[in-house]
Design a protein that fits this description.
The protein is mainly α and 445 residues long. It is built from 15 helices and 5 strands. Strands 3-4-5 form a 3-stranded antiparallel beta sheet, with no helix packed on it. It has a two-stranded antiparallel ribbon with strand order 1-2. Strand 1 and strand 2 form a beta hairpin. The radius of gyration is 30 Å and the shape is elongated.
Length: 445
């Protein structure tokens, strides 16, 4: 990783939420320089000094107007803090011939920037973080794809609860794909001009990236809303509520991202729209996600409180208590998916333990999809029971099929073909009856 990459990670992770960084290393410095240049040129038009040295932009620093003989001392630009542990000053003398040469002679010497001074440990750390979240998103993508196939193939698993899980899985899949696309475009495409004159495709990729991130947070909110509704509302129309969940999960992010896109096009159409931290319009995306995390945290606390009350109620029978105990365990497993750790980091300053934030928000956050697939699918009792049933049925078909090759015909004397016999054997098997009758007693994850 190049030394300026530290600028990328530090600038983006000053934000509260767990979003993968999206500002390329070279753009961070270039955008800061461009901003200072525009400000300097705008102020030079208001400069009325005719004697001495006028306001000057030297491609790095804006030098204010000065009288002849005056020595102007300017601090090193703030973005040098990413490349140096200590910032110095630069000096110019205003002479009758104009501005003298800067002292020290170069910004490299004055501001302490050394291309070889980046600590090896720091470079290794950021490289490890990138490798970590790449592995995490890859594992999540594989696990989520397998979970989606399982939930789609088995019709007995088609219900409102699993439909919501499938939408959550899809949001995680889209988030992982968006991260990979963003990394390729900003870090591996080799486009050197995407900071100032980006293509429509680059901006579209960033819009897709931001939409996937927001949709993922909103579907986590939907999971919290659905679980809270199950505990609070005794009877409700799942089909009616389900369409509201669809509207929240996919519709609400579309509204905010569309508004953000229109604002960027008309008022902040610069670069590839990856410089999110410095833009005042970033609140259009940041605020809704922060609200969703806060609401999800409140729902989590309410769910824990409701479960605690029910578990200690004398009117709850043994079987019902066992059911709520399993639900309580499942809820505790949902802590990382509810975004509780985002609330914890919200109370710390931006520069507090940057390394810890990177690990929690990038690396651990990339494994959220994998954890969701394990909790909602692979450890789900109904899914496991259905897989076992299909496995037994497949083995029975193989056994009877091979047996029928030596004892044909395949149609029995009573006119019933052997596939119907298999269905009846499976239906009336005692073991199968026990599995089907106990599906309601499996985990509610």
């Amino acid at each position: 990783m190049e030394p300026p990459a530290a600028c990328l990670w530090l600038s983006v992770f000053s934000c509260l939420l767990a979003w993968v960084s999206s500002t390329s290393p070279e753009c961070t410095a270039m955008l800061a320089i461009e901003h200072e240049r525009e400000k300097c040129l705008a102020d030079s038009g208001l400069d009325n000094q005719t004697v001495g040295c006028g306001r000057m932009w030297d491609n790095i620093t804006c030098w204010p107007s000065a009288a002849v003989g005056e020595v102007v001392v300017m601090p090193c630009p703030m973005y040098f803090i990413f490349f140096s542990s200590s910032l110095g000053n630069v000096t110019r003398n205003c002479t009758s011939q104009g501005w003298a040469d800067m002292y020290p002679a170069t910004y490299v010497a004055a501001c302490g920037y050394d291309t070889n001074s980046t600590p090896v440990e720091e470079t290794t750390f950021y490289g490890t973080v990138k490798t970590g979240y790449t592995i995490g998103h890859s594992l999540s993508l594989i696990a989520l794809t397998a979970a989606m196939i399982i939930l789609c193939l088995f019709r007995k698993l088609h219900c409102t609860r699993n439909y919501i899980h499938m939408h959550l899985f899809m949001s995680f899949i889209m988030r992982a794909i968006a991260v990979f696309i963003k990394d390729v475009i900003l870090f591996e495409s080799g486009e050197s001009d995407h900071c100032s004159s980006s293509s429509v495709g680059c901006k579209a990729a960033m819009v897709f990236f931001q939409y996937c991130i927001m949709a993922n947070f909103f579907w986590l909110l939907v999971e919290g809303l659905y679980l809270h509704t199950l505990l609070v509302v005794s009877f409700f129309s799942e089909r009616k509520y389900f369409w509201w969940y669809i509207l929240i999960g996919w519709g609400a992010p579309s509204v905010f991202i569309t508004a953000w896109t229109l604002v960027k096009v008309h008022y902040d159409n610069f670069g590839c729209w990856e410089d999110i931290g410095e833009s005042r319009y970033w609140l259009i995306i940041r605020a809704p996600i922060a609200v969703s995390i806060l609401v999800n945290f409140i729902l989590f606390v309410c769910i824990i409180r409701i479960l605690f009350q029910k578990l200690h109620s004398p009117d709850v029978g043994r079987n019902e208590t066992s059911q709520y105990s399993r639900l309580a365990k499942s809820t505790l497993l949902l802590i990382p998916l509810f975004g509780v750790h985002y609330i914890v980091f919200a109370f710390f300053p931006d520069n507090f333990k940057i390394e810890i934030k990177l690990v929690f928000e990038l690396v651990l956050g990339s494994f959220q999809g994998f954890v969701g697939a394990v909790l909602y699918c692979f450890l789900n009792g109904e899914v496991q029971a259905e897989l076992k049933r299909k496995w037994r049925r497949w083995h029975l078909e193989r056994f009877l099929g091979s047996d029928m090759k030596y004892h044909h015909p395949s149609v029995g004397s009573n006119g019933t073909n052997f596939s119907t016999q298999i269905s009846m054997l499976t239906k009336y098997s005692p073991k199968t009856r026990r599995c089907s009758s106990s599906q309601a007693d499996f985990s509610l994850v």
